[in-house]
Design brief:
By secondary structure, the protein is of the alpha+beta class. The protein has two helices and five strands. The mean pLDDT is about 95.
Length: about 90
């Protein structure tokens, strides 16, 4: 099962400047783990030591928010995942 993964510039150093990747998996977490096999360190940038998605990241599947429980959300062949970084300030 192949999905497309859109990435923000935050990840580009890890994934050799790619903006769009193809990955396999049945859940968002499996997709992240598949990317990590090709680009070691990717998972560490997404998932904390407790196995949760970092709070500064948002995941969308087919342009719809995957919140809550983003990592366990199911994905299907040809779905498109977008991983965004949330930037705050004040």
């Amino acid at each position: 099962m192949s999905v497309k993964v859109n990435l923000t510039p935050y990840f580009r150093d890890i994934v050799e400047k790619n903006e769009l990747l193809e990955a396999n998996g049945k859940t968002v977490k499996e997709v992240i783990e598949d990317i990590d096999k090709r680009y070691p360190g990717f998972k560490l940038e997404c998932i904390d030591a407790q196995g949760k998605l970092y709070g500064f990241l948002e995941v969308y599947i087919n342009q719809e928010s995957a919140f809550p429980d983003e990592l366990s959300r199911k994905v299907a062949d040809k779905d498109e995942i977008t991983i965004l970084t949330v930037i705050g300030g004040g």
